[in-house]
Amino acid sequence: ELQAKAEFKSATHRIAAWRKPSPQRSLSSHQLFETGYDDDGEKYGGRNLVNVLNELNVEGAIVVARWYGGTLLGPVRFDHIKNAARDAILQFTNVTQSSQSVKKAKLEEDQEATRRDELIRILPERDQSIKVLRGLLAEKQSSSSQGATSPAKVPDYATLPLRALENLERARDATIGWVLKQIEKAEAYEAKAEAAEEKAVVSKGDASSKSQRDSSQPSSPVPAERRIAAEADTTSQSPGG
After folding, report:
1. pLDDT tens digit string along 129-173?
2. How would you label 68-77 residue by residue, b for 16+ Cβ within 10 Å and e otherwise?
3. Straight-line distance from the first to the last Cα atom of the chain, in angstroms, rounded to the nearest whole number
């Protein structure tokens, strides 16, 4: 197709060469390439173009057109052919790399915009989660002198750059982790206090039961001799005795 381009129609020689990946692999698994050329009447011209493709390690096809001007150049003509091919390849490579760089920059810009929109959406949700968790922590620490830290003023996330939003995300995550640990400690303290209170109630109940058992037991009978003596004392103290 390149050889058939209109601008090459009047050329004496339209020397072509190509290089493409081969389906085969070397013993060391290195990529192999298939090459080919068309001298189009300029003997050894195509092979020189293949050498340029291999030298620059590029894939694709190239055509160098040569117009014969009536003067035999000898072997130096191959230098002109290779230089023309090398210049064309480098120019194409630079344009391609520039285009790829622009595409890459645009892709990164789009990704950053998507990430920024995501953070603007989720950061208020994190703030709400922190508010709820702090409220729960305050309830559990109501009997303690140390309460939850007051929440900071919420910024306008839509006005902040991506890096600032990412820093805030890390800070919010750290805050949530800290509050959860404090809640866990408070719950452990509550459980310990409840266990101690329950133990104290059980001990008090056991003591009360023992007291009731002691009071319900009948008194020991008074011996007959003591009863007679008591009656005698009573009789002797009555009037008219």
Report:
1. 999 999 999 988 875 544 445 556 778 999 999 999 999 999 999
2. eeeeeeeeeb
3. 158
φ, ψ for residue 13 (rounded to 5)? -135, 135
3-state class of 14 per DSSP? strand
Residue 49 near residue 82 (C-beta atoms within 8 A) = yes
User: 3-state DSSP call for residue 22?
Assistant: strand
Tokens coding 66: 């040569």
DSSP string for residues in 188-225: HHHHHHHHHHHHHHHHHHHHHHHHHHHHHSPPPPPPHH
How far apart (Å, rounded) are the C-alpha atoms in residues 241 and 234? 10
Q: Where do runs of H (alpha helix) occur along the chain?
A: 45-56, 76-140, 162-216, 224-236
In this structure, how many other beta carbons lie within 10 angstroms of the beta carbon of residue 130? 19
Token pair of 8 as six digits: 């090459």
DSSP summary character for residue 150:
P
CA separation for the pair 110, 162 (Å, rounded): 12
pTM: 0.46
Torsion of CA 230, 231, 234, 235, to 10 degrees: -150
Distance CA 105, CA 47 (A): 39
What phi-psi label fits residue 33: left (phi over 0), alpha (psi between -120 and 50 degrees) or beta? beta
Q: Compute the distance between CA of residue 7 and CA of residue 14 in angstroms, rounded to an integer.
A: 11
Residue keyed to tokens 């866990």: 184
